[in-house]
Amino acid sequence: MTKFSDLNLNPKVLKAIEEAGYETPTPIQAGAIPAALTGRDVLGIAQTGTGKTASFVLPMITALARGRARARMPRSLVLCPTRELAAQVAENFDTYTKHLKLTKALLIGGVSFKEQDKLIDKGVDVLIATPGRLLDHHERGKLILTDVKVMVVDEADRMLDMGFIPDIERIFGLTPFTRQTLFFSATMAPEIERITNTFLSNPERIEVARQATTSETIEQGVLMFKASRKDREGTEKRRILRALIDAEGDNCSNAIIFCNRKMDVDTVAKSLKKYGYDAAPIHGDLDQSQRTKTLDGFRAGDLRFLVASDVAARGLDVPAVSHVFNYDVPSHAEDYVHRIGRTGRAGRDGKAIMICTPRDEKNFEDVERLVQKTIPRLDNPLGDKATSRSEKPAADAAGQDTPKPDAATKTDKPKRTRSRSRKSDAPKEADAEKQPSKAREETPAPDAREPAQASAPAPQKAENTTARTGSSRGRGGSNRRSDNRDDRGGNKVVGLGDHTPAFIELSFEERET
User: Fold this and answer.
1) Considering only CA atoms, which of 349, 323, 328, 330 is closest in space to residue 246?
2) Domain ranges of the chain
3) How many helical (H) and strand (E) elements, i.e. helices and strands, does the chain have?
4) Which of 87, 270, 364, 501 is the most exposed place for a label (fewest CB within 10 A)?
5) In 3-state terms, what secondary structure has residue 73?
6) Which of the pair, 490 or 355, is modelled with greater confidence?
7) 4-207 with 218-397: one CATH topology?
8) Helix (H) or strand (E) holding 237
């Protein structure tokens, strides 16, 4: 069996490896380190969690052990797709260079330019950066890449697939042609591999496992879930997630819960905290200080559930993650391999559970096609009634309509109208429809103060009521002015008395004149 001492590494590097507790290299390390030490380009493909970071860190610091960096001219460059992965690579350099006098700088967003400029001005042997922040420093004239001897692209497929292709091409153009280039990733699609061939020269291909395979130590399962109603899907899906967590019991010591959208990350984290679960979100829109604090708390065991977007799916090394829950089926099948690779690391057992809704079934088929295996289906922990319940009243949950209040018990006040006579005459008008002759007999006499209108025939209340209550509205609605004119056409206003001012009893047309 190969040991680290057989790989021709620097003695001081071997001492740091021994102090870190490692004795035997992983297959990807045993294959990539000797090739990298000879100066060849390397294309390394292996399952996530197999130690790819050490595969390029160890030969790089061995090659850089001799020499010294000049100001603003780093001797090596490591590109990472996310801030968290870049910070993790920097921690690996700190671990393995503790007995060497090598300097490093970490260039990521969310951190002050001033502090980063100070490190670059002193000269660094190792520069670890995300593409965007690296180009920002170069455009400001603070960074020169013509002295780069070793260049590493970590999670190469993700770097090229996330829209970084123009930035990567530009960065490669800023480095010397004689550089050594190392590409490492868990997946390498054929179309992405063709792009890497333009950056690598006769690379040594190290492939220790079939591409896009998942570790055998990870138990996988999927719950096919359909909501009772579309507007209840989010609520019921979160209930399913909590039930899955509870079903694992004490076996679920900690877990990462992956969501496709940042908005869902916040929603799920907030929901879990509401129900007493120790959870916190992490995604690209959060401040870097908050992201770092959350991730450190999860690594230290102070935080049980980390609700994350794919910013945490690549390369993050938290050895003791017991479970991974895919709240959403990933949009890209390759991301599934990276997500569940956060558990079952370094030979440990792990469990990955996914929730699949009907609209995710196509993406789920892509996942099974990529991993070339059928993921076992899980039973709903809430039973058959899980998807029919909701957080609404019991009558609604049972599929029944909520009883409407009886019209007789309705206490709402009647709507106010322009004419007071309508409200007081409503019962009489209804009777007038049945007994029109009696309604004419009970019609009040004309007011003595309006002699001009006294001779006019009194309109029938029943006819006016019919016009207001339905028939004329069905033909386009009644005219409010004409209704008022018919009500008041010379009749005494009932309910106000003789003290009513004369102008109130006038029709609208008469008031306007």
Assistant:
1) 323
2) 4-207, 218-397, 419-512
3) 22, 13
4) 501
5) strand
6) 355
7) yes
8) helix 233-248
What is the pLDDT of the chain when averaged over all its residues? 78
Say what the pLDDT of residue 496 is: 57
The answer for 343, left when phi > 0, alpha when psi is -120 to 50, beta otherwise, is: beta
- pLDDT tens, 72-88? 999 999 999 888 889 88
Q: Is 218-397 CATH 3.40.50.880?
A: no
> Domain 4-207 maps to which CATH number in 3.40.50.720, 2.40.30.60, 3.40.50.300, 2.60.120.430?
3.40.50.300
Comparing 82-86, 148-152, 321-325, the range with the smallest average pLDDT is 82-86
DSSP line for 146-205: TT--EEEEETHHHHHHTT-HHHHHHHHHHS-TT-EEEEEES---HHHHHHHTTT-SS-EE
In the chain, the amino acid numbered 54 is: A
Taking the whole predicted model, whether its pTM rises above 0.85 is answered as no
Residue linked to tokens 């809704």: 357
Partners of residue 79 on adjacent β-strands: 129, 153
Q: Which two tokens stand for residue 78?
A: 């490591």
Burial class (CB in 10 A: 0-12, 13-18, 19+), 245: buried
pLDDT at residue 125 is higher than 70: yes
pLDDT at 196 over 90: no
